[in-house]
Amino acid sequence: MTDQTTTPGAGAASGAASDAVSITGVSRVFTGRRGESTVTALDGIDLTVSPGEFVSLIGPSGCGKSTLLRLIADLDQPTAGEIRIFGKTAKKARLDQEYGIAFQQAGLLPWRSVAANIELPLQLHGMAAAGRKARTAELLELVGLGDFGSKYPDQLSGGMQQRVAIARALAESPNLLLMDEPFGALDEMTRERMQNELVRICGETQAAVVFVTHSIPEAVFLSNRVVVMSPRPGRIQGILPVALGSSGQRGEGLREADGFFDAVSEVRELLHGAPAEAGARGVENR
Amino acid sequence: MSVSEALKAVDAGSIGTVPGIVEDSTRRPLRGAAFLRRFGLGALGVLLLAVVWELYKALGPAEGVIVGGVTVLPRTTDLAMPHVVDMVGRLFEPVSSAANALPMWMAVLQASAFSLGVASVGWIAGVIVGLFLALLMQRFLTAEAALFPWIVLSQTVPLIAIAPLVRRWGAQIEIGSFEWEPWMSVALIASYLAFFPISIGALRGLNSPDTNHIELMRSYGVGWWTTLFRLRLPASVPYLLPALRLGAASAVIGTIVAEVSIGLRGGIGRMVVEFAAAAGGDPAKPYAPIFGAVLVGLVAAGFVSLIGVFLRRYRRGEVPA
């Protein structure tokens, strides 16, 4: 979004400080055990996410969207290129708890009650018990599970578990939320309800979001920008701004709006351009 | 054979029951009727065993069933197979004809308590060593590669072979006022058997958390120790409990066998040997210490189950995604 034409080095750092995420020339190559087979999961990725912006990464399996998210989260390191989060290196950002993360699996600890699960990051970082309790109550209200604090994860439905996971990701009020197909395992109805909830939550928390999905309507409904990726090697095929209004204006009605369908079609065209091109290249190579 | 293959082999072999027990241990605690039913079934099993014994004794041939010169079923004489009633009745008679002889049940209880005490010391030592090895192997892959084969190999050494060695080495230990007692040798051998299932089970348990959970901890920027206490140890409980139970059983067996090999007086092992010699004139007598051994095993298993009750919270079923 902001201009990246500043001089490299000092410029990159100062320019990136205002961005939630700034990714420059990042690639990730996975090397086989004996070093003979290499897979280029990501190649030459440049992407910037502004504070408070909702960006979706979408693409077919193997396009590296999850890998990119893991690189931002510092759960994996890029082979080349640089990732900065609020001007910090990915590692520093992780250690400073600049982001909250939610995965496809809710990943709740089964021996902890819902409240204790949400409390986990606060507890690990030494917050006092009273403060934790207040914050947990607040978060439970935010995700609409006010009465479920003392339940255990196995007593909740999949959608409820995912809400708890989101509450946990939001526990330390991060300015960046990383989500890896968080609604992927949910049924369609629950999924749409969760999307509405997420739009509301993002409006309230003002956090920037990087959201990995393989659902086009989901990406369009939630995002300010949709990043379409293509596989082998993982590249950014195109970035589509979706001007469907601020989070406050995104309601259930939006799913019926013309602008929504137009954006869905555009994303679909961008997506479907990719496999045809890749196939043609494959033929030429033979 | 790689370490992971060895792990699988061990799983399939000695502690192949672990996954089944894990499933079992995640059940909700039994209440009321369910508990009574389970208890009743257990009692019924014991009763059935007694009935089968008596039936065969009544109906089987006196000289036993012999196929091609090999006795496949025992003789049914009172000498070879005393009546169950006699075995139980023998418990309430004095141990010997000596004037100051204790009633049998009391002597057996005393010996059982002695053996249980030694087995407990061995079990605790086994738990400490087993957990320590598991933690070491979890923390350092090289430690796993280096230690694992030896841990498996350690169990192939026959107990009878090491018992006299342990005794001889122990006898040479004398630090200040501390002197190595023979019962310590027995406890050491018990711990040698007990640490094995515990280290394997604990390692599996410590490695059981999903990548998901591990990465979550990583995203929180916490170190290995915090991850250990907040994630790995709680997650290992369903694996650890059956391992502790197996360890307890091993400690009891190790104690009784080592008592025999080392010749330690006062415990069940020695009593089994002594009373077996008396079987000619008093056929019901050797069964008394066997009841004692069963009792020791039950108490040991019961104690581990008690630990499980306190750790109930960590045994909830996995979260369905």
TrEMBL record, chain A:
InterPro entries noted in UniProt: AAA+_ATPase, ABC_transporter-like_ATP-bd, ABC_transporter-like_CS, ABC_transporter_ATP-bind, P-loop_NTPase
Domain named ABC transporter: residues: 21-256
Keywords carried by this UniProt record: ATP-binding, Nucleotide-binding, Transport
GO molecular function annotations of the record: ATP binding; ATP hydrolysis activity
CDD domains on file: ABC_NrtD_SsuB_transporters (cd03293)
Pfam entry (one): ABC_tran
Protein name as annotated: ABC transporter ATP-binding protein
TrEMBL record, chain B:
UniProt keyword list: Cell membrane, Membrane, Transmembrane, Transmembrane helix, Transport
All residue ranges annotated as the ABC transmembrane type-1 domain in the record: 112-308
Range of residues in the leader sequence: none
Protein name per Swiss-Prot or TrEMBL: ABC transporter permease subunit
Recorded GO CC terms: plasma membrane
Subcellular location: Cell membrane
Membrane-spanning segments: 35-53, 113-135, 147-166, 186-206, 239-262, 290-311
Organism superkingdom: Bacteria
Membrane topology, from the record: Multi-pass membrane protein
Upper lineage: Bacteria, Bacillati, Actinomycetota, Actinomycetes, Micrococcales
Matches recorded under InterPro entries: MetI-like, MetI-like_sf
